């Protein structure tokens, strides 16, 4: 066998071993995925044309431009600190029907939805609900409040909704 053939075989063996080790180490995660636990936390852009993920820099630019922000966290977390001018509406509360909440949102323009950040999925759930309600330009700030605060951007505390 040539040197190139042996090197290729060794590379394939290392790759196969890497996949096997990763599967063993991440087996609980693979099981959760197989059970469908993450189905709601992903979205295919073609299925939701009005949704787009954005970075903290984009979120800041949209905030400075006066676009509407919606905080998908609980009311308690909202009161502890939120993006200035953001409206509070957890996905659960909005789903049960907050007509006043929907009336306060502009149908035209961009809506920026955020939650805690990290693995929080409340913003995605609320964004999907807003899309169903007829809003067409929804941005999901995946870094959320955690990233906003870490960047030292402006913040408000309390219940500062109009």
CATH architecture annotation name of the largest domain: 3-Layer(aba) Sandwich
Strand content: 5-15%
Query: What pattern of helices and strands is seen along the backbone?
Result: HHEHEHEHHEHEH
- The CATH homologous superfamily of the largest domain is termed Rhodanese-like domain
Report the helical percentage: 40-55%
Oligomer: single chain
- The beta-strand count equals 5
Number of separate domains: 2
What kind of sheet is the major sheet?
A: 5 strands, parallel
Shape: elongated
Taking pLDDT < 50 over at least 5 consecutive residues as the criterion, the unreliable ranges are none
Task: Indicate the mean pLDDT.
Answer: 82
By helix and strand content, what is the structural category?
Answer: alpha/beta
Descriptive report:
The chain has 162 residues and is of the alpha/beta class. The chain has 2 domains: 3-34; 39-150, 3-Layer(aba) Sandwich (Oxidized Rhodanese, domain 1). The chain is 46% helix and 11% strand. It is built from 8 helices and 5 strands; from the N terminus they run ααβαβαβααβαβα. The chain has helices at 3-25, 27-34, 56-64, 75-80, 91-95, 99-103, 122-132, 144-150, and strands at residues 51-54, 68-71, 87-88, 111-114, 138-141. A 5-stranded parallel beta sheet has the order 1-5-4-2-3. Strand 4, helix 7 (122-132) and strand 5 form a beta-alpha-beta unit. The radius of gyration is 21 Å and the shape is elongated. The N and C termini lie far apart (77 Å). The mean pLDDT is 82.
């Amino acid at each position: 066998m040539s040197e190139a053939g042996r090197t290729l075989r060794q590379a394939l063996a290392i790759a196969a071993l890497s996949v096997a080790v990763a599967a063993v180490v991440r087996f609980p995660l693979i099981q959760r995925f197989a059970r469908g636990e993450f189905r709601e936390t992903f979205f295919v852009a073609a299925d939701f044309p009005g949704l787009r993920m954005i970075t903290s820099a984009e979120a800041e630019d949209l905030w400075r431009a006066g676009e509407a922000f919606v905080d998908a966290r609980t009311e308690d977390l909202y009161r502890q600190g939120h993006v200035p001018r953001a409206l509070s509406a957890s996905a659960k509360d909005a789903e049960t029907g907050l007509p006043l909440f929907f009336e306060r949102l502009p149908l035209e323009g961009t809506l920026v939805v955020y939650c805690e950040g990290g693995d929080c999925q409340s913003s995605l759930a609320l964004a999907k609900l807003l899309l169903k309600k007829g809003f067409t330009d929804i941005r999901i700030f995946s870094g959320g409040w955690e990233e906003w605060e870490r960047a030292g951007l402006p913040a408000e505390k309390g219940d500062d909704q109009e």
